Amino acid sequence: xxxxxxxxxxxxxxxxxxxxxxxxxxxxxxxxxxxxxxxxxxxxxxxxxxxxxxxxxxxxxxxxxxxxxxxxxxxxxxxxxxxxxxxxxxxxxxxxxxxxxxxxxxxxxxxxxxxxxxxxxxxxxxxxxxxxxxxxxxxxxxxxxxxxxxxxxxxxxxxxxxxxxxxxxxxxxxxxxxxxxxxxxxx
Length: 187
Description:
- The chain is α/β, with parallel strands linked by helices.
- The protein has helices at residues 7-14, 27-33, 50-57, 69-78, 111-118, 145-148; strands at residues 40-44, 61-66, 83-86, 98-104, 120-132, 142-143, 155-167, 170-181.
- It has a single domain (40-181), classed as Vaccinia Virus protein VP39 (Rossmann fold, 3-Layer(aba) Sandwich).
- It is built from 6 helices and 8 strands; from the N terminus they run ααβαβαββαββαββ.
- The model has no long low-confidence stretch (mean pLDDT 84).
- Pfam families: Methyltransf_25.
- Residues 42-124 form the Methyltransferase domain.
- InterPro entries: Methyltransf_25, SAM-dependent_MTases_sf.
């Protein structure tokens, strides 16, 4: 039976657990954002805010959005340098576009990725990191690079692959898509 990844699910997931892990930011974010001049960034589905905090520490103006008020309560305690927003990304609307839109392990597909792509400014970067299809995660929490569905005439794809990385206690299998939004269809 599919999981209902709604606000109550995530509030329960994070209850008592948020704020305990001092994780490193995802290496793909560090690699990709490290190549870019700091600007305006969105961390979509920010969880505890590790990536948002890294971006802010490196000069980005960061808006971090998550569905769970429980996890954002802890994130807000970690830093006031980030604009923390509790909202559903399928209905929330930003006040403009971003130079970087990053999402890590968000559990949604289709319309969400279309919305994230719309929020990237021309010349900006979209970074999507998700759970690779496999036995460890329910299908509705995994993605393929095709799930993101970027129009090739509007995007330069710089990374589109599955990667395995070592983490404490084992390995994670990630699907990674990084793309730059073209300024014009022929850029």
